[in-house]
Design brief:
CATH class of chain B: Mainly Alpha
Radius of gyration of chain A: 19 Å
Low-confidence stretches of chain B: 342-357
CATH topology of chain B: ABC transporter involved in vitamin B12 uptake, BtuC
Distance between the termini of chain A: 51 Å
Largest sheet of chain B: 2 strands, antiparallel
Strand order of the largest sheet of chain B: 1-2
Oligomer: heterodimer
Number of domains of chain A: 1
Low-confidence stretches of chain A: 300-304
Order of helices and strands of chain B: HHHHHHHHHHHHHHHEEHH
């Protein structure tokens, strides 16, 4: 039982990281129909912004060494700027393009960012020591919980609440929801498309910045492809959660986290190497049972 | 006769283009160039295979590279040295393990096995809508990768299969590429192909006209898997050494990018995309090696090839959102009548010459 609870906490903590990434991806998908492969690379940018640019193996902290009230907003700001730049340079000229074209464009952006980081920082993974104190364990009853998992969970909850308050209570949030529902209709009613899309990019940048800090603290290393697996799991989360639904993205993120952790814990040892195969077979099964996702978005119904 | 040629000129022109490129390469006697072009022809097979499904159905599939992996391993199982298979691949059936088969048998295996897997997978996932189907194929790619890199007794796991005869050169690859173009063309003008393209352009209207969309998609999916699998089989017998690593996300994205850059809704686009992207990469590689001007070597910094490719791809998409071919087919002769989707005003030779220049 204790073992199961322990696994469950691991699952929820992993799931909350996936949920944060999925929120960033889902937000853009809802408005732009863009599957943004570059989102993972926004996370990479945030992580690499912590250190001094050089090709050395050991990383020296630059912004990462500053006190957190300065550092956290600064990292988020850097990622937001990167996200807005990609919007202005690549996605704005492609507003009327088809969904596959947008996706390949985001892949091109991701390719540019990854190889840019590779060029500036070298190809070897770097060890980085960010907030190592957060990895101490806390005893709750008989459970040993790493402090970081609690922080991750708290940050996720705070960001989700902040996002949903923003979407429900502020004028811009309402405009964003309207744009996600029916972009053209929203424009007819006076919603300025580029502002709303820029905002969505900015918010997904903030989410990516937060994930980059949490993930770097947890893994203790940087590599130029570190964001890729996160983004991939997030796409899957967005789709099985229900495309275009933000609640769905969160549900999908936690579902993926739980599936992966539980398979790792309970598969027989000689099948454990095939964990990803089982995890993605589960994904296909979920899709076959619920093609519109776990929490179908209202706007995703096909209209004739 | 003339109208027959005019009507079906596209595959002939595309194949002739490839043969021309192959001939020029062979005349140049540049070994490195020949290797590059063999690889390019194999990619033509793969991307034309992608086009058969993605282009005609409008659904992006990330999973086709999984079929390439299956095809490549099928060819490797047939042709690798029996002594090697005895030691490293003990889990193979005796018929495969103890014998070494010729090229054509290996290619047949690389065609049939992926097609069979595609039939099973496709029967399950073709009823999903666009994006959900895309993610399901993506999941399939990860499953294939996970299984092939861990099923040690049959795939040698993360170590490589060696001793595959390297029988594939530029001409073999070129001929297979031309055949792939022909097959893709015959499919696209067939009844099934036309119904599928109708469903791509307007799903509801196609359904209302009694098009059985699921079945059409499944046929295209299986045919696509077979072509991509053949590409994999060629690749194994071109390299002579096989690991799971290359058949993953990078290859999946770069091949889809080739298709989209060329223009995903025409066969011409598929071929143009491969030729254009290969040309861009080679030019950037050349610049990266540097130009020697007297004593000074002017070179782009290392890594600029990848960044350059990304930038060029983004630029092409921004200025030609429908790809280099704009979704049209290559035409030289104006057809007498205007059958189906080819009309005399859709001449796009300029794009083709631009890409190969």
């Amino acid at each position: 039982m204790i073992q199961f609870l322990q696994n469950l906490i691991d699952a929820i903590s992993l799931g909350s990281i996936y949920a944060l990434v999925a929120l960033g991806v889902g937000l853009l998908f809802g408005i732009l129909r863009l599957i943004n492969f570059a989102h993972g690379d926004f996370i990479t940018i945030g992580a690499y912004a912590l250190i001094v640019p050089s090709a050395d193996v050991t990383a020296r902290l630059l912004i990462g060494g500053w006190p957190w009230p300065v550092m956290i907003p600064l990292i988020c700001l850097i990622v937001v700027i990167a996200a807005l730049l990609t919007d202005v340079l690549v996605f704005r000229p492609l507003r009327r393009a088809s969904s596959p074209t947008l996706m390949i464009a985001s892949f091109a952006v991701s390719y540019i960012i990854q190889n840019g980081v590779l060029m500036a920082y070298g190809s070897r993974p770097k060890a980085v020591d960010l907030w190592s104190g957060a990895n101490t364990q806390v005893l709750i009853g008989n459970l040993r919980v790493p402090m970081l998992q609690l922080i991750t969970l708290a940050v996720t909850l705070i960001l989700m609440i902040a996002l949903s308050l923003f979407l429900k209570k502020t004028p811009y949030g309402v405009q964003m929801r309207a744009a996600a529902e029916d972009f053209r209709m929203a424009q007819y009613l006076g919603v300025r498309g580029n502002v709303v899309i820029g905002l969505a990019f900015a918010i997904s940048g903030i989410l990516a910045g937060a994930v980059s800090l949490l993930y770097t603290t947890q893994s203790g290393s940087l590599s130029h492809t570190m964001g890729v697996p996160l983004a991939l799991f997030a796409f899957v989360a967005v789709v099985i959660g229900g495309m275009g639904s933000l609640v769905g993205a969160v549900v999908g993120g936690f579902t993926i986290g739980i599936i992966v952790t539980m398979l790792q814990a309970y598969l027989p040892p000689d099948l454990r190497a095939f964990r990803d195969a089982f995890a993605f077979a589960c994904v296909i099964l979920v899709l076959l049972v619920r093609p519109a996702g776990l929490v179908p978005a209202r706007s995703s119904f096909e209209r004739v | 006769m003339r109208s027959f040629i005019a009507r079906h000129q596209t595959p002939v022109l595309l194949a002739a283009l490839l043969v021309l490129i192959a001939a020029v390469t062979l005349l140049s006697r540049n070994e490195a160039l020949q290797v590059t072009l063999t690889e390019m022809f194999i990619r033509v097979v793969v991307v034309v295979g992608l086009y058969v499904f993605i282009g005609n159905s409008g659904i992006i599939s990330f999973g086709q590279i999984g079929f390439m992996c299956i095809g490549a391993y099928a060819a490797a199982w047939a042709t690798a040295e029996p002594s090697f298979k005895g030691i490293m691949l003990g889990g193979l059936p005796a018929l495969l393990r103890d014998n070494q088969y010729p090229f054509l048998v290996a290619i047949a295996g690389a065609l049939v096995l992926p097609a069979a897997v595609a039939l099973l997978l496709g029967a399950a996932i073709m009823r999903l809508s666009g994006t959900a189907a895309s993610i399901a194929t993506f999941a399939f790619l990860i499953i294939v990768n996970s299984v092939y890199s861990n099923w040690d007794s049959v795939t040698a796991g993360v170590s490589s299969i060696i001793g595959i005869p390297t029988v594939v050169g530029p001409w073999t690859a070129c001929i297979v590429a031309a055949l792939a173009i022909l097959v893709a063309y015959l499919f696209q003008i067939s009844r099934v192909g036309l119904m599928l393209r109708a469903s791509r352009d307007d799903e509801v209207a196609a359904r209302a006209s009694a098009v059985k969309i699921l079945r059409m998609r499944l046929v295209a999916f299986v045919l696509s898997a077979a072509l991509v699998g053949v590409g994999g089989g060629l690749y194994a017998q071109f390299l002579g050494i096989l690991t799971v690593d290359p058949f993953y996300l990078n290859l999946s994205f770069i091949t889809i990018a080739m298709l989209v850059v060329g223009g995903m809704s025409s066969l011409t686009g598929a071929v143009t995309g491969v030729v254009a992207v290969t040309a861009i990469v080679e030019i950037l590689r050349f610049l990266e090696r540097g130009l020697a001007v007297r004593d000074i070597t002017l070179a782009l910094p290392q890594g600029s090839q990848e960044i350059g490719l990304g930038i060029v791809m983004a630029l092409i998409l921004v200025f030609r959102p429908n790809g280099l071919s704009r979704g049209r087919e290559l035409i030289l002769l104006a057809p007498a009548s205007t059958p189906r989707e080819m009309r005399p005003d859709q001449v796009t030779i300029a794009d083709e010459t631009k890409a190969t220049a």
